[in-house]
Description:
With 311 residues, this protein is mainly α.
Amino acid sequence: MNGLSLAKQYFADCGLPMxxxxxxxxxxxxxxxxxxxxxxxxxxxxDISRDHDWxxxxxxxxxxxxxxxxxxxxxxxYNALPGDFLGFSRREVSEFxxxxxxxxxxxxxxxxxxxxxxxxxxxxxxxxxPENYLAVVTNGEVFMDSLGKFSAxxxxxxxxxPEDVRLKKIVARAAIMAQSGQYNYARxxxxxxxxxxxxxxxxxxxxxFSMVYLLNKRYMPFYKWAHRGIKDLPVLSETYVMxxxxxxxxxxxxxxxxxxxxxxxxxxxxxxxxKRQSLTDSNSDFLQDHCTQIMQRIKDEDIxxxxxxxx
Length: 311
């Protein structure tokens, strides 16, 4: 049983009966689920994940007004729930792992990760929101939300970045992939600047990860889980194995040449998907050459005028 399934069963067997017994008039006003930080919220947890911040638990979200009225009492009732459940021990909270589960205002949950108490309303607000934080507030599952306040914000965020913002991020990723992977990696190897080559490879992988997620209209999670998440994406999931090969330890003399080949293969797949989404008409195999065409598809004039590397 993974953490998300455990949380759902724990809420059904222990959390919901507690609410119905002690807070019956608030049952239709409390949202419950498991969303936020932690591998279990993404469904990526395993046996190794269980050494900290893992165990029977869930989140309860309230409006600000309801939190003022019953927040403390509901927290006490939540903390009184059984620590052990279905053979799994009480959640061990790490030094910085507090506040991930339990009772909290909806506004505080979103503000904690986005700096906003509601969904963003302007392009500037959207541009300021990092992908990994948006991944945190839209992962997991909502088990109950009759009032709909928590889910209303969640659905707006799940609809993904406005198209102009997505396109500008795609442009920035394409430019970095071209500069770091298609250009600077090979040049660094020729100069025997192997540290610079590794830095270029890192920048390429990081930008390529983000590119794959942007082309799927999904938020890229924390770097630790970015590669794992690609496996389950509907578009370009085949790159999961290619990234693994790109990072494999190689001792033979052709190692750098093999990496250069994989970099070009990844860029070729990205260009093909850009064309499939009608974002470019260029036939160039150098990703940076596609940036101008993508920029021309941005409708907002201010965003269209941004530097190629700006998000």
